[in-house]
Specification:
- The complex is a heterodimer of chains A (138) and B (141).
- Chain A has 138 residues and is mainly alpha-helical.
- Chain A is built from 6 helices and no strands.
- The radius of gyration of chain A is 17 Å and the shape is globular.
- In chain B, helix 2 packs across helix 3 and helix 5 runs antiparallel to helix 6.
- The chains are: A mainly alpha (138), B mainly alpha (141).
Protein backbone atom coordinates (compact mmCIF):
# COMPACT_ATOMS: atom_id res chain seq x y z
CA UNK A 1 0.00 0.00 0.00
CA UNK A 2 2.81 2.36 0.90
CA UNK A 3 4.62 1.74 -2.40
CA UNK A 4 1.36 2.54 -4.24
CA UNK A 5 1.13 5.93 -2.53
CA UNK A 6 4.79 6.75 -3.13
CA UNK A 7 4.45 5.82 -6.80
CA UNK A 8 1.26 7.86 -7.18
CA UNK A 9 2.84 10.88 -5.47
CA UNK A 10 5.98 10.64 -7.63
CA UNK A 11 3.90 10.33 -10.81
CA UNK A 12 1.84 13.35 -9.78
CA UNK A 13 4.99 15.33 -8.97
CA UNK A 14 6.43 14.57 -12.41
CA UNK A 15 3.10 15.44 -14.01
CA UNK A 16 2.92 18.77 -12.16
CA UNK A 17 6.51 19.60 -13.14
CA UNK A 18 5.63 18.88 -16.77
CA UNK A 19 2.53 21.09 -16.60
CA UNK A 20 4.49 24.00 -15.12
CA UNK A 21 7.55 23.71 -17.39
CA UNK A 22 5.43 23.30 -20.52
CA UNK A 23 3.55 26.54 -19.85
CA UNK A 24 0.19 24.74 -19.73
CA UNK A 25 -0.60 26.12 -16.28
CA UNK A 26 -0.92 29.50 -17.97
CA UNK A 27 -4.37 29.75 -19.44
CA UNK A 28 -3.35 32.38 -21.94
CA UNK A 29 -0.89 29.97 -23.54
CA UNK A 30 -3.76 27.49 -23.92
CA UNK A 31 -6.14 30.17 -25.24
CA UNK A 32 -3.40 31.13 -27.69
CA UNK A 33 -3.38 27.60 -29.07
CA UNK A 34 -7.15 27.63 -29.49
CA UNK A 35 -6.97 31.05 -31.17
CA UNK A 36 -6.27 29.59 -34.62
CA UNK A 37 -7.80 32.54 -36.48
CA UNK A 38 -5.88 35.10 -34.42
CA UNK A 39 -2.41 35.28 -32.90
CA UNK A 40 -1.82 31.51 -32.82
CA UNK A 41 0.49 30.09 -30.14
CA UNK A 42 1.60 26.54 -31.09
CA UNK A 43 3.04 25.63 -27.65
CA UNK A 44 0.23 23.17 -26.78
CA UNK A 45 0.94 21.22 -29.97
CA UNK A 46 4.56 20.74 -28.86
CA UNK A 47 3.41 19.64 -25.41
CA UNK A 48 0.99 17.06 -26.84
CA UNK A 49 3.62 15.82 -29.28
CA UNK A 50 6.16 15.32 -26.50
CA UNK A 51 3.68 13.63 -24.19
CA UNK A 52 2.11 11.31 -26.78
CA UNK A 53 5.54 10.42 -28.21
CA UNK A 54 6.37 8.96 -24.79
CA UNK A 55 3.04 7.26 -24.06
CA UNK A 56 2.63 5.83 -27.58
CA UNK A 57 5.94 3.96 -27.24
CA UNK A 58 6.10 3.27 -23.51
CA UNK A 59 2.47 2.18 -22.89
CA UNK A 60 2.95 -0.76 -25.30
CA UNK A 61 5.82 -2.15 -23.27
CA UNK A 62 4.12 -1.46 -19.94
CA UNK A 63 0.84 -3.11 -20.95
CA UNK A 64 2.70 -6.24 -22.10
CA UNK A 65 3.71 -6.87 -18.50
CA UNK A 66 1.54 -9.30 -16.53
CA UNK A 67 0.72 -6.75 -13.80
CA UNK A 68 1.68 -3.31 -12.49
CA UNK A 69 4.93 -3.15 -10.49
CA UNK A 70 3.14 -2.38 -7.20
CA UNK A 71 0.59 -5.17 -7.67
CA UNK A 72 -3.08 -5.18 -8.65
CA UNK A 73 -4.28 -5.07 -12.23
CA UNK A 74 -4.03 -2.67 -15.11
CA UNK A 75 -7.19 -0.53 -15.10
CA UNK A 76 -7.42 0.61 -18.68
CA UNK A 77 -10.76 1.41 -20.38
CA UNK A 78 -11.81 -1.71 -22.28
CA UNK A 79 -14.57 -0.27 -24.45
CA UNK A 80 -13.45 1.69 -27.50
CA UNK A 81 -16.83 2.78 -28.80
CA UNK A 82 -17.54 6.31 -29.94
CA UNK A 83 -21.02 7.22 -28.72
CA UNK A 84 -23.18 10.34 -28.38
CA UNK A 85 -22.39 10.76 -24.71
CA UNK A 86 -18.66 10.87 -25.41
CA UNK A 87 -19.02 13.42 -28.19
CA UNK A 88 -21.51 15.59 -26.29
CA UNK A 89 -19.32 15.54 -23.18
CA UNK A 90 -16.17 16.38 -25.12
CA UNK A 91 -17.99 19.18 -26.94
CA UNK A 92 -19.19 20.70 -23.64
CA UNK A 93 -15.71 20.37 -22.12
CA UNK A 94 -14.18 22.07 -25.18
CA UNK A 95 -16.59 25.00 -24.89
CA UNK A 96 -15.59 25.55 -21.25
CA UNK A 97 -11.91 25.09 -22.12
CA UNK A 98 -12.19 27.74 -24.82
CA UNK A 99 -13.98 30.18 -22.49
CA UNK A 100 -11.22 30.30 -19.90
CA UNK A 101 -8.23 28.28 -21.13
CA UNK A 102 -8.30 26.07 -18.03
CA UNK A 103 -8.54 22.29 -18.03
CA UNK A 104 -8.57 20.15 -14.86
CA UNK A 105 -4.82 19.54 -14.31
CA UNK A 106 -3.51 23.06 -14.87
CA UNK A 107 -6.35 24.70 -12.94
CA UNK A 108 -5.64 22.55 -9.87
CA UNK A 109 -1.97 23.56 -10.01
CA UNK A 110 -3.10 27.18 -10.37
CA UNK A 111 -5.37 26.82 -7.34
CA UNK A 112 -2.48 25.38 -5.32
CA UNK A 113 -0.37 28.37 -6.34
CA UNK A 114 -3.13 30.71 -5.14
CA UNK A 115 -4.32 32.09 -8.48
CA UNK A 116 -7.64 33.88 -7.97
CA UNK A 117 -9.00 32.77 -11.37
CA UNK A 118 -8.36 29.14 -10.45
CA UNK A 119 -10.09 29.54 -7.08
CA UNK A 120 -13.20 30.82 -8.86
CA UNK A 121 -13.06 28.10 -11.53
CA UNK A 122 -12.45 24.99 -9.39
CA UNK A 123 -15.66 25.05 -7.27
CA UNK A 124 -17.73 25.52 -10.45
CA UNK A 125 -15.84 22.62 -12.05
CA UNK A 126 -16.55 20.34 -9.09
CA UNK A 127 -20.23 21.37 -9.16
CA UNK A 128 -20.43 20.64 -12.89
CA UNK A 129 -18.90 17.23 -12.38
CA UNK A 130 -21.22 16.33 -9.50
CA UNK A 131 -24.29 17.41 -11.47
CA UNK A 132 -23.14 15.49 -14.56
CA UNK A 133 -22.66 12.48 -12.32
CA UNK A 134 -26.35 12.69 -11.41
CA UNK A 135 -27.92 13.59 -14.75
CA UNK A 136 -25.47 12.49 -17.47
CA UNK A 137 -24.12 9.18 -16.22
CA UNK A 138 -24.61 6.03 -18.28
CA UNK B 1 14.66 27.74 -23.78
CA UNK B 2 11.94 29.15 -25.98
CA UNK B 3 8.26 28.33 -25.47
CA UNK B 4 8.19 25.55 -28.06
CA UNK B 5 11.22 23.78 -26.59
CA UNK B 6 10.03 24.08 -22.99
CA UNK B 7 6.60 22.92 -24.17
CA UNK B 8 8.12 19.83 -25.72
CA UNK B 9 10.27 19.07 -22.66
CA UNK B 10 7.28 19.59 -20.35
CA UNK B 11 5.28 17.30 -22.62
CA UNK B 12 7.94 14.58 -22.32
CA UNK B 13 7.71 14.86 -18.51
CA UNK B 14 3.92 14.56 -18.65
CA UNK B 15 4.25 11.47 -20.85
CA UNK B 16 6.80 9.99 -18.44
CA UNK B 17 4.52 10.74 -15.49
CA UNK B 18 1.62 8.94 -17.19
CA UNK B 19 3.93 6.01 -17.98
CA UNK B 20 5.18 5.82 -14.38
CA UNK B 21 1.63 5.77 -13.04
CA UNK B 22 0.54 3.02 -15.44
CA UNK B 23 3.70 0.95 -14.87
CA UNK B 24 3.62 1.24 -11.08
CA UNK B 25 -0.05 1.02 -10.14
CA UNK B 26 -1.80 0.30 -13.44
CA UNK B 27 -3.82 3.51 -13.59
CA UNK B 28 -4.48 6.03 -16.34
CA UNK B 29 -3.25 9.55 -15.57
CA UNK B 30 -6.45 11.35 -16.50
CA UNK B 31 -6.86 14.27 -14.13
CA UNK B 32 -10.65 14.61 -14.43
CA UNK B 33 -11.08 10.87 -13.85
CA UNK B 34 -8.73 10.93 -10.85
CA UNK B 35 -10.62 13.89 -9.34
CA UNK B 36 -14.06 12.43 -10.03
CA UNK B 37 -13.05 9.15 -8.41
CA UNK B 38 -12.35 10.84 -5.09
CA UNK B 39 -16.01 11.49 -4.31
CA UNK B 40 -17.48 8.28 -5.65
CA UNK B 41 -14.57 5.90 -5.14
CA UNK B 42 -14.78 2.66 -3.26
CA UNK B 43 -12.70 2.35 -0.11
CA UNK B 44 -9.07 1.72 -0.85
CA UNK B 45 -9.37 3.48 -4.18
CA UNK B 46 -9.11 6.99 -2.83
CA UNK B 47 -5.64 7.35 -1.29
CA UNK B 48 -3.63 6.99 -4.51
CA UNK B 49 -5.78 9.71 -6.11
CA UNK B 50 -5.06 12.13 -3.27
CA UNK B 51 -1.35 11.24 -3.40
CA UNK B 52 -1.16 11.83 -7.16
CA UNK B 53 -3.03 15.15 -7.03
CA UNK B 54 -0.99 16.25 -4.01
CA UNK B 55 2.28 15.60 -5.84
CA UNK B 56 1.01 17.37 -8.94
CA UNK B 57 -0.29 20.43 -7.10
CA UNK B 58 2.69 20.84 -4.76
CA UNK B 59 5.40 20.48 -7.40
CA UNK B 60 3.46 22.38 -10.05
CA UNK B 61 2.78 25.28 -7.69
CA UNK B 62 6.39 25.39 -6.49
CA UNK B 63 7.67 25.64 -10.07
CA UNK B 64 5.05 28.14 -11.23
CA UNK B 65 6.89 31.31 -10.11
CA UNK B 66 9.81 30.34 -12.37
CA UNK B 67 7.66 30.07 -15.50
CA UNK B 68 7.35 33.07 -17.78
CA UNK B 69 3.86 34.50 -18.07
CA UNK B 70 2.55 35.79 -21.38
CA UNK B 71 0.15 38.74 -21.26
CA UNK B 72 -3.61 38.12 -21.09
CA UNK B 73 -5.31 37.70 -24.46
CA UNK B 74 -8.94 38.54 -23.93
CA UNK B 75 -10.89 39.92 -21.06
CA UNK B 76 -11.88 36.48 -19.91
CA UNK B 77 -11.08 37.04 -16.27
CA UNK B 78 -14.60 38.02 -15.23
CA UNK B 79 -16.12 35.95 -12.47
CA UNK B 80 -19.35 34.87 -14.28
CA UNK B 81 -17.32 33.72 -17.27
CA UNK B 82 -14.88 31.73 -15.12
CA UNK B 83 -17.80 30.14 -13.25
CA UNK B 84 -19.53 29.19 -16.50
CA UNK B 85 -16.28 27.84 -17.92
CA UNK B 86 -15.60 25.80 -14.79
CA UNK B 87 -19.09 24.33 -14.79
CA UNK B 88 -18.82 23.32 -18.46
CA UNK B 89 -15.38 21.76 -17.94
CA UNK B 90 -16.58 19.77 -14.91
CA UNK B 91 -19.82 18.67 -16.59
CA UNK B 92 -18.22 17.84 -19.94
CA UNK B 93 -15.26 15.89 -18.62
CA UNK B 94 -17.54 13.79 -16.39
CA UNK B 95 -20.01 13.14 -19.21
CA UNK B 96 -17.29 12.46 -21.79
CA UNK B 97 -15.13 10.45 -19.38
CA UNK B 98 -11.96 12.45 -19.79
CA UNK B 99 -10.06 15.62 -20.43
CA UNK B 100 -6.84 16.72 -22.10
CA UNK B 101 -4.76 14.24 -20.11
CA UNK B 102 -7.00 11.16 -20.07
CA UNK B 103 -8.14 11.33 -23.69
CA UNK B 104 -5.20 13.33 -25.02
CA UNK B 105 -1.97 12.16 -23.38
CA UNK B 106 -3.06 8.64 -22.37
CA UNK B 107 -5.84 7.79 -24.84
CA UNK B 108 -3.92 8.85 -27.93
CA UNK B 109 -0.92 6.91 -26.59
CA UNK B 110 -3.12 3.78 -26.54
CA UNK B 111 -4.33 4.53 -30.09
CA UNK B 112 -7.92 4.63 -28.81
CA UNK B 113 -10.60 5.64 -31.33
CA UNK B 114 -12.71 7.01 -28.50
CA UNK B 115 -9.89 9.24 -27.31
CA UNK B 116 -9.16 10.52 -30.81
CA UNK B 117 -12.84 11.36 -31.35
CA UNK B 118 -12.95 13.17 -28.00
CA UNK B 119 -9.74 15.13 -28.64
CA UNK B 120 -10.87 16.26 -32.09
CA UNK B 121 -14.25 17.27 -30.64
CA UNK B 122 -12.97 19.30 -27.70
CA UNK B 123 -10.28 20.96 -29.80
CA UNK B 124 -12.93 21.95 -32.35
CA UNK B 125 -15.41 23.36 -29.84
CA UNK B 126 -12.56 25.05 -27.93
CA UNK B 127 -11.36 26.77 -31.08
CA UNK B 128 -14.92 27.71 -32.06
CA UNK B 129 -15.50 29.19 -28.60
CA UNK B 130 -12.34 31.30 -28.78
CA UNK B 131 -13.38 32.47 -32.24
CA UNK B 132 -16.76 33.61 -30.93
CA UNK B 133 -15.20 35.22 -27.85
CA UNK B 134 -12.92 37.22 -30.09
CA UNK B 135 -15.92 38.49 -32.02
CA UNK B 136 -17.92 39.58 -29.00
CA UNK B 137 -15.17 40.57 -26.56
CA UNK B 138 -12.57 43.12 -27.56
CA UNK B 139 -9.08 41.65 -27.30
CA UNK B 140 -6.94 43.27 -24.64
CA UNK B 141 -4.48 45.71 -26.22
Amino acid sequence: MKSVLVAAFASGALFGAGLAISGMTNRFVVLGFLDVFGDWNPTLAFVMTGAVAVTAIAFRFVLRRPAPACGGNFRVPAADIVDKRLIAGAAIFGAGWGLAGFCPGPVLVGAAAGLTDAWIFVPAMVAGSLIAGKVASP
Amino acid sequence: MNASASGFVGGLLIGLAATLLLWSIGRIAGISGIVNGITGAARGDRAWRVAFLGGMMIVGALLLPFVQTPPPRFQTGTTPLLLAAGFLVGFGTRMGNGCTSGHGVCGLGRFSKRALAAVLTFMATGMATVFVIRLVVAPTP
